[in-house]
C-alpha cells in the first residue's frame, strides 16, 4: 500500500504457486494502476504466464491475496474472472477452429431472438461491425475460423476480449504472429482502451514494443518478483540485467587468453536461412577450429538455430552449405552423416537413456550412424567406452554402470562422449553445463576449447551464462527475437557487451 | 467452376452434400432396378423401420460432437434394458404403460448420468466408461429375464400400431417421434448456447474453458441426452418388437456410430449435422430395402456395403481436412505477399 489505493485496480500480493514438484511462483507481487499499460517481463519460465493464469482463474494460487477493485477475489474459473471484468488473450490462439468467426467472438453471450434462440443474423452483423470498427478488418464472419491464417485468428481473439466489458485486459504475447502493420493497429486499439480507463497487462518479448506502448514494467525471474519500474526511468540495459539477474559492470571484461584461433575455411555456412516462426533470415558461418557462442535470452531462438543446424527443423528459405557444398537436409541422420553432432539442452528428456549402461550410451550415436543392424564387436565397444571415459574423466565404477546412477555432470560427459565417438567436424553443445557442479563446468568449458584447438573441431556453445561464453568463445552471435542482431569478436567479448548487445545498445564492429 | 468446387469441398457442409447425393443415387438405383420401389410408402418405411436407430443415432451424435474421444457404447444395451423393463413391468404389475414409459426414460437418464459423471469428474475415457455401462445394462437385462418376454398389454399394443395417414400412405407413431427428436436436436444444436457449446468443446476443450464455457456441465448433459435418446429409442424398438429380450439392440451402438460418421460427423468431435446423420441411417435402410427387393442376396450384404462406405467416408474426411488446410495456407501466403506492397 505504498500509494493511495484509489489509483490501483489490482494488487496481487505474496502469490505462491506450486505445481507438483515445482514452485512456479515464489512470493510474487503485482500491482496494476487504473488506465495504464503495464508490461510483465522475464525470461521464458520466469512465471509470467503462470501469474496471469492465477489472476484469470485457470490456476489456483497456493498462497497469497488478490485485491481487485478494493475487494479480495479468488477466481476459480476463467468464467468467474471474465464476469468481474478481467479479459484475456492467451499466448496461443485460444478459440475454436471449428466454429465461425462470429461465434468465436460471441460464444457464451450470443445475441438472442424473441424465443431465446441464438439470433444468427444479429450476431453476424455485430461481429462484422466490431471487426470493422475496432480492428479495421473486413472478413466473412460466417466462415469457420480455421479458414483464416493465425495472425487473423489472433486479431479475432483480441476483438473478442475487447468487446467484453472488461476493466483489465491481459494480452499474453499477442504480437508474436502479427505483422508490423497489424501490431500498429493493435497499439492504436490499446491506446484507445487506455484512454477509456481500462488497464492493460501486456506481455511481450519485443523490447521495442514494450518501450513504445507501456508505462510501467514488473520484472519476474525464476518465479520471484524482482521489482516494478517506470519504463521511462529504466534504461534497456538495466531491464535486461534485471531479467537475467546479472549486474552490469564495465570492468567485467574477462581475459581472452588461450582461446582457439579459427582457420579461414567454413565448416558450415547459412545464407538467409528461414524457418517460419523459429529462425528469421539467418546468415552466418562457422569456421574450422572455432568455438562460437550463441547468446541471447531464453526463448530468443538460440536452440532453434542449433536444431536447424542439426536438421531437426527444416528451413523453408535460404541455403545451408557444409564444407562449401550446398546440402538439402531432411533429418538429423543427414546431418550426422555430414559429421555434425548435437548435445541437446535437456539431457534428461532428449539425451540419456537411463536404463542403458555408460558403454551403451556412448556407442549409441555411432551405432545409429553405422546402421542399426551392423554389429560392432564387443571388444571395440569396450575399447571406445574406456577411451572416452578416460579422455573426459568420467567418474564411473566401471563402463557397465547404468547412466541414471551417475551425477548430472558425468551424464553430460557421457553424452558428449557419445557424439565425440562419431568423430564430428562440428559439435553443438546446447546448455552443456546447466545444473552441473562448478568443477565439471570448468572441465567442459576447457574441453570445448581443447577440441577446437587440438582436434580442429568447430564447437557451437550455447549458454545462458555469459561468463562461460566469454571464457570459451572466439566469436559470439547475439540472437534476439529469432534474429541475429550482431556478432562480437575476440576482444569485444565481455559480459557487459553481450548484455548491451541483447538490449540493442551495442552494435559491435560487424 | 474450379474455384466453386474448391470452396464446396472446404465448406463444413460438404459431407452432408455427399451423403445426400449418395442417398439419392442409392434410392434412384433402387427405383430404376425394381418395380414398385419408387413410392412414397417405401420412402416412409425407411423412417418407420429405422425409427429406433434414428433416435439412438441422434443421441450418440451429441456424444461424438462433444469431442475428447466422446462416444456412448451403452446405447444398444440401454435399448435392450428398456424393452425388457417395459415387458416385465407390464407382465408382472398392473401399471399403466403411461407410467412404465416415463420410468424407463428415467433409467436411460440415470445411465447417462453415470456415464457423464465418470467421464467428467474422474476424467475417464468415454470408451471405457460406456463399455462398462454397456455390460452392466446387458447384464441387468438378463437378470430380469433370460428368455424373451412378450408384451401383451392391449393399450400398449394399440400405441404400437398407431399410425397416421398421409394421402395414400401411412407413418407410425415411432417414426413421428423420431422425426420430432431430429427436429428438436437440430434446433438445439443450432440455436441454443448449449448446442453451440457442444461444438465448442468438441473443437477445442481448453479454448472453450478459457472462453468461459462450463465444459463439464455441457459434457455431462451430452451423456444424459444420449442415455435419454437410447431409452426413447428403446420404447420405439419395443413398439416394433413387442417383446423384451437380452439380444435386442445388439450391436446397435455400432450401427449408430456408422450412421453418424457416414452422415458427416467427425469422430474427433466438433463437426457434424443431425440431418446428415439421419441420412446416414437412411442410407443403411435403403441398402437393406434394395436387398429385400432383390430377394436372393443375404441381408449381410448391408454390413459389407456399410463397411466399405465407412472406410470411404473416413478417407474422404481426411482428404477434405487436408484440402481445407491447404486452402488456408494458400490464403495465408497470398495475404503475406500482399502486405509489403501496401506498406
Mean pLDDT of chain B: 89
Specify the overall morphology of chain B: globular
Overall structural class of chain A, as computed from helix and strand content, comes to alpha/beta
Total separate domains of chain B:
1
**What is the H-and-E element order of chain B?**
HHHHHHEHEEHHHHEHHH
CATH architecture of the largest domain in chain A: 3-Layer(aba) Sandwich
The oligomeric state of the chains shown is: heterodimer
Estimated radius of gyration of chain B: 22 Å
Report the strand count of chain B. Answer: 4
Major sheet characteristics of chain B: 2 strands, antiparallel
How would you explain this protein's 3D organization?
The complex is a heterodimer of chains A (510) and B (343). Chain A is built from 17 helices and 20 strands. Chain A has helices spanning 48-55, 78-83, 101-106, 120-135, 150-163, 180-195, 207-213, 236-244, 302-309, 332-337, 347-351, 358-370, 378-391, 408-420, 438-454, 466-472, 495-503; strands at 8-19, 22-33, 37-41, 63-68, 71-72, 86-89, 168-172, 199-203, 216-221, 224-230, 266-275, 279-287, 291-295, 317-322, 325-327, 340-343, 426-430, 458-462, 475-480, 483-489. Chain A has a 6-stranded mixed sheet with strand order 6-7-8-3-9-10, with helices on both faces. In chain A, β9 and β10 (224-230) form a beta hairpin. The longest helix of chain A is centred in the C-terminal third of the chain and has 17 residues, at 438-454. The two termini of chain A are 49 Å apart. Residues 250-256 of chain A have low confidence and may be disordered. Chain B has 343 residues and is mainly α. Chain B has a single domain, classed as ABC transporter involved in vitamin B12 uptake, BtuC. Chain B is 77% helix and 3% strand. Chain B has 14 helices and 4 strands. Chain B has helices at residues 2-10, 14-33, 40-65, 75-92, 97-121, 126-144, 154-161, 173-191, 193-203, 205-210, 215-241, 252-262, 274-294, 300-342; strands at residues 149-150, 163-166, 169-172, 243-244. Chain B has a two-stranded antiparallel sheet. Chain B has a two-stranded antiparallel ribbon with strand order 2-3. The longest helix of chain B is centred in the last third of the chain and has 43 residues, at 300-342. At the A-B interface, α2 and α5 of A face α8, α9, α10 and α14 of B.
